[in-house]
Amino acid sequence: MDLYISAAISGVAVGLLYGMIGFAIVMLYKSTGVANFAQGTLATLGAFVAWALVTDAGLPLLAAVPIALVASGVFGIIVYFLVIRPRASAGNLNITVRTLGLSLLLLAIMEWRWGALAPYRYPTIVQGEGIQIASVVLPAQSLLIAAVAAVIMVLLWALFRYTRAGLSFRALAEQPDTARLLGLRATRLSAATWGLSAILGTIVGVLLAPSAFLAPAMMEPYLLFTFTGIVLGGLTSLPGALLGSVIVGIISNVTIVAFNLEAGVLVVFVILLIVMLLRPQGLLGKQEAVRL
Amino acid sequence: MRISSARKFTPLAVGVAALALILAACSGGGAVGAGGDSDAEVGVTEDTIYLAASQTLSGPGAASCAPSTDAAKLYFDKVNAEGGIDGRKIDFEVIDDAYDPQRALANVRGFIDSKFAMVGACGSATAAAVYKTLSSAGMPFLFPTNGVAEVVKPAAPGVFQILPLYEDQTAALVQYGFEEFGAGSIFVVVNPLGEYESAIERAREAAEQGGGEFAGSAVAQLGTTDYTPIALQIKEAEPDFVVISTGGSDSAKFVNALVDQNALPAKGVLGTSAAVAGSFLNSYNVAAAEHLYLGSATQLPAAADNECIELLAGGDFANDPIAHIGCASAMGIVQAIRQTSPLTREGLMKTIESWSEEDVSPGVFAPVSFSAEDHIGLATLYIVQPKGSEFNVIAQCPYSEDDSAVGGCTAAG
Q: How far is B68 from chain A, CA to nearest CA, in Å?
């Protein structure tokens, strides 16, 4: 039993990581209605920028990360103006496919620039032995991820719930035409959302790289778990993204120790299918009603 | 209507066919045949020898694999710069198979009628997918990094491998561990690199023959994100040894998870040569270094005066064992081609089968031997430990399919 409890606890740790990636996707979806398939590569690119500042420019990591966050925010805004905004009326499916193309393009660029010697060992922000719960040790980096995930979730929840900007984001996503008629600056808001999403991605990339090792395709294996987590939790719910991801992490890890690693992946697909069939809006998501 | 249409195009078709015949008759400098000589070998012209490789250049295995063909290309370029082989330059084409067996097979089929030989790249699953096609076409498949026994056992015509199979390595590693630290229990962790079941089975047999016991096994896909659950299983099983046959990055992730979970085994982690890669050195937790005993097909650090080591020095892959293997294998290929006259595919195969204790890349590979029945060249496994950014040989173990015929390991001087 101790093994299963330990596996479940380690599942919470890895689930929080999936949830962090999910935050950025959910935030963008809530604000623009677009599922961003480039979120993983944006995160990796941000982590590479921070790494380059450390190794090439000789900056300490704590100085490099803020610079990388600013750079990724600017890059997110540039992406919005170059890739998303042109022909915005083409529809969300068209824009979603553009994000897929953007992901492949960024991946190719990173392979070209950094791929030859990847993966790279990435410096950790925190050192230390972590804490032991049951027989599982939660490394200091995992504890940092949990803390950052909690802070980001509260900040984003407050942003969308209580701030004028957050309400504007939601209005723009749910009723874009009405929002524009009411005077919301749609372009500015959307650009800000892309910038914020890229910043969140970089935070995730920097936190993940020490354990996943920095490589152009670093995020790919995580995206299946992340998308399952946010679909399970509700694609429009930030707490749902975290809850769904933690559930996926726990079920996956417990299945692995009970059976094997392949079963751990298989169960994720099963969860995804069941949720899509029985509760498409997810655990905490709201059912959408469309007036015809 | 269709009939009339076909009739309408008949003169055009005849014209195209005639033109094609004329062009074929006039062309003498293609990849096939030399100077219009109908007896010339496929992929050999008067001034060029065409070689190719299907390599994992994308996906999770790319970081570990790509340096092997990059380094081979460096060596071929060096040979070309020095005048080539008997006046012929080497044209070496590498295309990506993303470690996809079907894609590798499609790549290979495109090369059979235009290249002289396939340079074996990295990847057991891909080697297993292509070897029959190459062997039946009479095309040499030289020195793949392969862990699938059926590729070379029994010896397939034209398919030669320098490196030991993973299943032979796991058995030799268990034997080494028991000799050095006493018998004990083993837990085996593998990526599906080739016939991973036989790697587990041979480790189990070696443990049981050596007076130890088998505590369990786990199979993890290449690119697994989190090895913590397996580390927890090992922590609970408390084996004396963990035997791994996992890729470079995956080995590092796994070892790091063992360190994080305080789950390093009491006597050591024994790993096959799949872990002996630059991608491992770049990312493993150095706290585990003294617990690691890894099998290596190459001497590490390699001799500084080896041509490959001189060539790679100062470059991106100077300390990458995969690059050493790629370059040293290229040296072997060049040596075999130089020794073959006239240069035919069949002649090349006979040359390699005649090698006995041949020094193809002294200071990197131990001498290699082949025969008509044995197409695995090395009979020595180096045991290495990581230290900083390089591996160091600490012992040398003979290995064989027949464990009882293998003598003891000797510590490195």
A: 12
